[in-house]
Amino acid sequence: METVSEALEELLVAAQRQNCLTVGVYESAQLMNVDPDSVVLCVLATDEEDENDVALQIHFTLIQAFCCDIDINIVRVSGMRRLAQVLGEPLSTDSNANEPRDLHCILVTNPQAEHLKLNEVGSYCKESHCRNQWVPSIALQER
Question: One Pfam family from the UniProt entry (predicted)?
Answer without folding.
Answer: Ribosomal_L7Ae
